[in-house]
Design goal:
The protein has about 180 residues and is α/β, with parallel strands linked by helices. It has 8 helices and 7 strands; from the N terminus they run E-H-E-H-H-E-E-H-H-E-E-H-H-H-E. It is globular, with a radius of gyration of 16 Å.
Length: about 180
């Protein structure tokens, strides 16, 4: 089975492009969706509480807004959270891939290079869009975020040009979605 990664910075249109692969019969695993599911697990929540304390919780519920504000402002805290979540996401991906009846499967994730996951994949495809297009898409999807918060999230990821350079293939996606 061939394993592909579809990556690119926030707002590049990865999910839109992934739907084209699905239409071509390639099953797609969405790493962000899986990570969100992990935050429903009691053991993961306990580990998050150990790392970040009660300030990222509303009672027993994780407050993603507060967690995001912390990790996108503090690279060390972000790395600690990723060290907890990334292995669990890859474990889920491998289990999912083993259940697929396909010669090719794909993971969609913004942080393939940042998480040093390149070795898990046979080919890495980067979706690219210009910064103004990305900002516009993120503002439309997350109107509660200020432009400064959007830029903090963009800057928390590996530079888009570096991703394109490291990729096996680049898909330019400037059109409005």
């Amino acid at each position: 089975m061939k394993k592909l990664a579809l990556t690119g910075g926030i707002g590049t249109g990865k999910t839109f492009i992934s739907r084209m692969f699905i239409e071509d019969g390639i099953p797609v695993f969405y790493a962000d969706d899986e990570a969100k599911k992990l935050y429903a697990r009691a053991d993961v929540l306990a580990d998050v509480r150990k790392l970040f304390g009660d300030e990222v919780f509303d009672g027993d519920r994780l407050n993603f807004g507060r967690l995001g504000a912390i990790i996108f402002a503090n690279a060390e805290k972000k790395a600690q959270l990723e060290a907890l979540i990334h292995p669990l996401v890859m474990e889920a991906f491998n289990q999912w891939a083993a259940q697929q009846n396909a010669d090719i499967v794909m993971m969609e994730s913004a942080i393939i290079f940042e998480a040093h996951l390149e070795s898990y994949f046979d080919k890495i495809i980067v979706v690219h869009a210009s910064l103004p297009v990305r900002i516009k898409r993120i503002q439309r999807r997350n109107p509660e975020l200020s432009e400064a918060e959007i830029m903090r999230r963009i800057n928390a990821q590996l530079d888009q040009e570096i991703k394109c350079h490291l990729a096996d293939e680049v898909i330019d996606h400037e059109e409005d979605i």
